[in-house]
Amino acid sequence: MPDKSSATPVDFWFDPLCPWAWMTSRWVLEVEKVRDIEVRWHLMSLAVLNEDRLDELPDEYRELLETKAWGPVRVVIAAQEEHGAQVLGDLYTALGTRIHNKDEGPGRETVAAALKDVGLPESLMEHWDSTPYEPQLRASHQEGIDKVGQDVGTPVIAVPGADGEQIAFFGPVVTPAPKGEEAGRLWDGTLAVASVPGFYEIKRSRTKGPDFSNL
């Protein structure tokens, strides 16, 4: 097994529902192939993020959060608590592949199939409607938000800044997910902006939706 003791840590917060987080997660895994980094996965929740502002949201998005966002994250946090955080990366890959690449959606059958894909027990589906691990879900979510601030969504990544202290960002939001050295250059740029004290944001309007064609 490769020695990861010298690798640059990258903490990544995701909600499996979010297509943009999925794109960014595939980028950061590509970076692992061309740069010495170690990705550490964490769960956040769009349902938790928006629970106090549902009345402000468009009807379609509010319905999505109320009907489809809670079940998957409850199952994922149960998997983490009962089988260890090391299962998150593979489980997220299985979920995202089915939800986004195969367009199966985030329903019960999809999540159950993803559990089977990675050898986790179907009994985790018992957490779909409620879970005793909700405090852990909220704590994981809050850890990411505390690093980046409230006015963001998912993905959130945290990387070392100039003094080694973690700097967190929403994003990078990118489509399609860069491959090879292109992925490495975007990573280099991420570290570069993180090294500048007082840097906060670069942004432009999105002109296309998530492109999963190269995943």
Task: Summarize this structure briefly.
Pfam families: Rv2466c-like (PF22234). This protein is α+β, with helices and mostly antiparallel strands.
Describe this structure in words.
This protein has eight helices and four strands. α1 crosses α8 and α5 (88-101) crosses α6 (108-117). Strands 2-1-3-4 form a four-stranded mixed sheet, sandwiched between helices. The protein is an alpha+beta fold and 215 residues long. It has helices at residues 19-34, 46-50, 59-68, 70-83, 88-101, 108-117, 134-148, 180-194, and strands at residues 8-14, 37-43, 156-160, 166-170. It is globular, with a radius of gyration of 17 Å. 46% of the residues lie in helices and 11% in strands.
